[in-house]
Amino acid sequence: MMFRRVERMAACVSDMKAKKMSVKSLITLVLIGLMSIIDVVVTESVTRPRGVSLTNEPFYRDSQWFTCLDGSRQIFKSQVNDDYCDCMDSSDEPGTSACPQGKFHCNNRGFKPKYIPSSRVNDGICDCCDASDEYKGPGATQCSNNCRELGRADLERRQQEIILMNQGFDVRQEYIKQGIEKKAEREESLKKLREEKEVADQLKDEKERLKQEAESPEKEAKDAHKAVWDAQQAVLREERDKQRANEAFDELDADRNGLITPDELADHKEFDSDGDGEVSEEEAKVVLGGVDQVIKPTFTASVWAVIKDKYKSEKDQVTPEDPSPVPSPPEDVNEGDASEEDLDMGDHGDMNDEDEEDFADEDDEDEEFDDDLDEGELMEKYAKHRADYEKKKEVKGKGEDGEEMPEYDEATKKLIEVADAAREEFKEAEKQVNDLKKSIEDIEKLMNVDLGPQQEFEPLQKQCYEYTDREYTYKLCPFDKTSQRPKAGGSETQLGNWGQWEGPDENKYSKMKYTRGRNCWNGPDRSTLVILRCGLENKLVSASEPERCTYEFQFETPSLCTTKTDVETGEIDSHDEL
């Protein structure tokens, strides 16, 4: 019988060689065959109770006595497998279902031996591929030995895995090549960009110097022009102030005798300093400078300057018949919710309708604010818009009589034109520097990511992979983020941002950690652990939530196919030639 088994094994080996299967696979099959032969020899030469493994067989050799494996007691050998549990550790009933904690050993020659709970013995269900667990009852006739078929299938499966791992290893080599080339390309680009930025910085400094040189005479000319305009307006204001003073005197001099006395101020409640509703004689004298009467020259020269901000003429005190109601703020607005910028415009003041229209028109020509800008860029853009508004407001400034400031003379216009050109050139030079700076930062950000010791994970960068189950579509963007969105439609929920490699020291690149995802209601921030394994293609194969707000992804990638089995020698190669 043993000789026939050797013959069959030799024939199988020859068949495998004909199919050019790997030596490792051959060795595996030979070992299985040898184990089967050894098992047969031992089985035929040594009698062991049913359900006992070769490892434990020596404990059952005594022909008269059996000692429980826990040493608790000794029983007659005849009591082993008598369908009655005598040992506390169930070791006297390895082949029956008498003991609740017993274990039955399936020899499974030709496949994988295993233990099953003894409660499954003779339950009518085939648990051992060699059918040894069903030796009486219905299972005895229903179960057959199919271990060899399972062994062959398992061997074929493992061979297929080896083939796929070898293919994945080859893809990984290509990934390494791409990664090294990409890294070199980025380093070269970074070097060139830094050189270009150095030149651009020098050009920007030069353009800034020229801008300042052009702005200096421009400012002098504009300031001189405005000074003349301001002087003219000051004269007009002074004349208008004198006119108002004379009009006020004439109005207050009720008896037209050329004098203003305290009793003539009684009807002007704006001079009621103590708030009792009456203008007393003492209050009136204070207004008049402490005297009982004043003449027009004295009034216009000294008194008017003190009272002009309080004084209300008769026409100012006339109440419209149907004044428009002042709108009240909404009741649900909390004053505390408004920011200081909303409540206090500072020196800028409120825009009138004409100013708002002018500023809005100018905004239409400018670029829109980008939601992705950081705080510094937003403040810079706001400052630009504010400056443009102030400049427009300055140009649109009205004089005392409502007229606009006169145009600049031709010489000043020429200086402004030169300064505008210098400013535009500086702006372009500054933009070039900022663009180069942004490009450098983008490349540095990519290069700061750990893409593996040989850049083998580089092809995964800037890519995204999805997996859909019954409820959600999950997304993995390596070195960026993880997310999920309802399969039926809805917004995306961020499950984590790229953190770091999380694998053990001996296999660091087998796990990825993504943290700081969207906060769970009344819980922690979401996070994701991505477990990587060798695969022929980059593929997100599963997603789950083993704990609340903690997700786990399974991802296959050739980047992790680190070994290759030589089909000629059977040797395992983990050396990356690149």
Automatic annotation (TrEMBL):
The UniProt record lists the keyword Transcription regulation: no
GO-annotated cellular components: glucosidase II complex
Coiled-coil ranges per UniProt: 412-446
A Gene Ontology BP annotation from the UniProt entry: N-glycan processing
Biased segments, Acidic residues type: 332-344, 352-377
Annotated segments matching region Disordered: 208-227, 235-292, 312-410
GO molecular function: calcium ion binding
Gene3D superfamilies tied to this protein: EF-hand, Low-density Lipoprotein Receptor, Mannose-6-phosphate receptor binding domain
CDD domains: EFh (cd00051), LDLa (cd00112)
Keyword Transferase: no
Biased composition (Basic and acidic residues): 236-247, 378-400
Domain MRH as annotated: residue spans: 462-563
Domain EF-hand: 240-275
Entries under PANTHER family matching the protein: GLUCOSIDASE 2 SUBUNIT BETA, N-LINKED OLIGOSACCHARIDE PROCESSING
Annotated protein name in UniProt: Glucosidase 2 subunit beta
Organism placement in taxonomy: Eukaryota, Metazoa, Echinodermata, Eleutherozoa, Asterozoa
